[in-house]
Amino acid sequence: MKDDNMQFTLTNNGEGTISLRKFLIEVGVSKRLIARxxxxxxxxxxxxxNEYWDYQLIDGDEVVLTLPEEPDNDAIHASDxxxxxxxxxxxxxxxDKPAGMVTVPGPSNEDTTLVNRVKGHxxxxxxxSLVPHVITRLDRFTSGLVLLAxxxxxxxxxxxxxSNGQLEKSYLAIVAxxxxxxxxxxxxxxxxxxxEIRRSVMAEGKASETTYKVVTRFPDYTLVDVKLVTGRTHQxxxxxxxxxxxxxxxxxxxxxxxxxxxxxxxxAAKLSFEDPFTGKKxxxxxxxxxxxxxxxx
Length: 297
Fold this sequence. Notes:
Blueprint: E1 5-11, E2 18-19, H1 20-27, H2 31-38, E3 43-46, E4 49-50, E5 56-57, E6 62-68, E7 85-88, E8 92-97, H3 114-124, E9 133-134, E10 143-149, H4 152-164, E11 168-176, E12 183-187, E13 190-191, E14 200-201, E15 209-217, E16 221-228, H5 235-242, E17 266-274, E18 281-285, H6 290-293
Parallel strand pairs: 10-17
Antiparallel strand pairs: 1-6, 2-5, 3-4, 3-6, 7-8, 8-10, 9-10, 11-16, 11-17, 12-15, 13-14, 15-16, 17-18
């Protein structure tokens, strides 16, 4: 194998035995990638030995994949602007994003987004892969935790947890009025009319589900803990507007703008997932930023 390849270690933590091929599929390795490895575009070793695909793994066995490096994307510029890094290892990066920072480059900002800054960080730290993969994207004016994969292979492994809900995200939101129910489950389809930024609940929209629990009630608004079952654009903002409790500071969805905050009062406060490389659970928390914390005093 060439020296410019990347190596990844996966640990089998299951009871009993499982074939090498089945183990790789269960942790998220695609059948297409397995086929490419069989054709010579990579290598798989078990406990530093070459083994057949039907080799039976036992608890604690280490599987090492060697894959070609991911080519750099020159269209993404690197930025040396600061990042608030909560966690980093060879596969993952968790960043606490402030409100106002754009997550991914676009026509309005191609140089100083979160992704640009992460690329600059990867270059500065000598990373072998320079393509950041955003796993949990946030709106520009939503603050809090963002998970990024540092290479495409990690992105592919975490995809299953995104779809089955094993990757857990919870938000703190300050919403208008007195939310009467201590907890609730909002199941309403969300869609968008062509040419509009704003989303709406509409019959032809995509199935969407948001759960919440009331944390504290105040005279004019309510602090709620929110979890997304699905992940539609603006989902929390749309669903709370639909139940007549728009987020405080959310001008787009007609939230109250006279409470002392000039952006939607929404913060990605908790994030947890099972690291597919080690089988260990990783969990992170972020404190409320000052502009939201002031409303709760």
